[in-house]
Amino acid sequence: MLKNATDLDFFTDQIKGTSWVGLCFTDNRWIWLDGTESRSVTIRYNTHCAALYKSKLYDWKCADQNHWICEKRAVQLLIKEDFNILPVSISGMKHVDGN
């Protein structure tokens, strides 16, 4: 989630236009999807949705079609060398390539 200036700067450099960021107005507070509160939203439209636009978070018209930023858990690859087989564990599931 975009909770600090470094994250905002990174995505501002990578994405042009407006992007949904997983922040909404609930119970008179701006709440991230993980339940933490944000106070960094600039109010323009008095809506319940927020988007990243030109390096700032703004409330945004919920019906607008925008790009979105999705956070996913990192994938951990564990590779063990063997002459005949290469097992790889991805998110706890073991995959074996016998080629």
TrEMBL record:
| Gene3D superfamilies according to UniProt | Mannose-Binding Protein A, subunit A (3.10.100.10)
Naturally occurring in which organism (per UniProt): Microcaecilia unicolor
What is the protein's given name? Killer cell lectin-like receptor subfamily B member 1B allele B
User: What PROSITE patterns does the record point to?
Assistant: C_TYPE_LECTIN_2
Please give the InterPro entries that the UniProt record associates with this protein: C-type_lectin-like, C-type_lectin-like/link_sf, CTDL_fold
Alphabetized Pfam families for the sequence: Lectin_C (PF00059)
Q: Where is the C-type lectin domain?
A: 1-71
Quick one: which gene encodes this? Answer: LOC115462745
